[in-house]
Design a protein that fits this description.
binds pyridoxal-5'-phosphate; Lyase, Ornithine Decarboxylase, Chain A, domain 1; EC 5.1.1.1; TIM Barrel; alpha/beta; pyridoxal phosphate; 16 strands
């Protein structure tokens, strides 16, 4: 019997990639696969994204795992390389690198690669995480252009801080800052993450960088994937392993901090924070059993949760329990756990079984 299982729907994945094309029909797509493809399985997800123009990851090891898995598309390293000894590996494996600081630029200038790297120059337009200050742009661009280790086809990038919020004016000022910086240049540009793709059409450049939305999850505040015709790719499931009746005034779970006000049946489901189900999911977080939503009650344990099945017994041991999926958006669960869907997806642990379905 399968207990905690992440069922990954590859048909939903390809549907979502088509939706990216619909949103940004003039842009090439760099599908973001960092953190084990947001917890969905790096190589399996990549193998189903034939229609993407490139892949993007955050770590050199993630890029190497894609090559080891037989993937041949261009791969962009979103944080670039971390040490000059990475550079020959980048060249040998056709990894494209972001350059976002002076150290990286000097490392490239001081080596003799015997080949040319494709470089994305990242400009910090206000997020103040990675990227060079706009005032450094000309200097960096010229030094890269003049360097024999760098392909003359330099590409330009920035990243948004607040694109999930349509009322926030920061995205528009970031776009304006970027445009001012690169004016009169014909290089390819890439600005938009999922929220830029869905919410800010003016940010769709030559390339877009969708992550969350290809997994069927909304990047926008207060929305779910369904609002943009995206289909959730992951369905996290398990089974009931026990049912018991408790009386009004009795508790369930560690700390005995939840008490039932009436006699009820408690279902024990085989999933917990040891599987990546969030410990901070509060009492009342919805869980689906036999087509209806029932509330999580009491604390999440390492291997189990307790749910209130109600005073009329309709369920039995081994029945399926859905934690999130098409009928129960992970965005809603994230709200109940005081976090974001990105974190819930990434936090799935190796104990969970993966099942890929069409
Ligand atoms: C993770 C990441 C993305 C993808 O973001 P989503 O919100 O998941 O679409 C795009 N660009 C950069 C630089 C990132 O780090």
């Amino acid at each position: 019997m399968r207990l905690a299982t992440a069922e990954i729907n590859l048909t939903a994945l390809t549907h979502n990639l088509k939706k990216v094309r619909d949103f940004a029909s003039n842009s090439k797509i760099m599908a973001v696969l960092k953190a084990n493809a947001y917890g969905h399985g790096l190589v399996q997800i990549a193998q189903s994204l034939n229609e993407a123009d490139a892949f993007a990851v955050a770590r050199v090891d993630e890029a190497l795992a894609l090559r080891a898995g037989g993937l041949v598309k261009p791969i962009v390293l979103l944080e670039g390389f971390f040490d000059k000894t990475d550079l020959p590996i980048l060249l040998a494996n056709n990894f494209q690198t972001i350059v976002h600081n002076e150290t990286q630029l000097e490392d490239i200038e001081q080596c003799d690669l015997g080949g040319q790297l494709t470089v994305w120059l990242k400009i910090d337009t206000g997020m103040h995480r990675l990227g060079i200050h706009p005032s450094q742009f000309i200097n960096f661009y010229q030094r890269l252009s003049n360097n024999p280790n760098v392909n003359a086809d330099i590409k330009l990038m920035t990243h948004f801080a607040c694109a999930d919020d349509l009322l926030n004016t920061m995205t528009q000022s970031q776009i304006a800052e970027f445009d001012a910086c690169i004016k009169n240049m014909s290089e390819e540009v890439c600005l938009a993450n999922s929220a830029g793709i869905v919410g800010w059409q003016q940010s769709h450049g030559d390339w877009v960088r969708p992550g969350l939305m290809i997994y069927g999850v909304s990047p926008m505040l207060e929305k779910t994937g369904n609002d943009h015709d995206l289909k959730p790719v992951m369905c996290l499931k398990t089974r009931l392993i026990a049912i018991k009746k408790i009386k009004a005034g009795e508790s369930a779970g560690y700390g005995a901090n939840w008490l039932t006000s009436k006699d009820t049946y408690i279902g024990i489901a085989a999933i917990g924070y040891g599987d990546g189900y969030p410990r901070h999911a509060n009492t009342g977080t919805p869980v689906m059993i036999n087509g209806r939503k029932v509330p999580l009650v009491g604390r999440v344990s390492m291997d189990m949760i307790t749910v209130d099945l109600g005073d009329v017994l309709q369920d039995k041991v081994a029945d399926e329990v859905i934690l999130w999926g098409p009928e129960l958006p992970v965005e809603i669960i994230a709200k109940h756990a005081d976090t974001i869907p990105y974190e819930l997806l990434c936090d799935i642990t190796p104990r969970v079984d993966y099942k890929y379905v069409e």
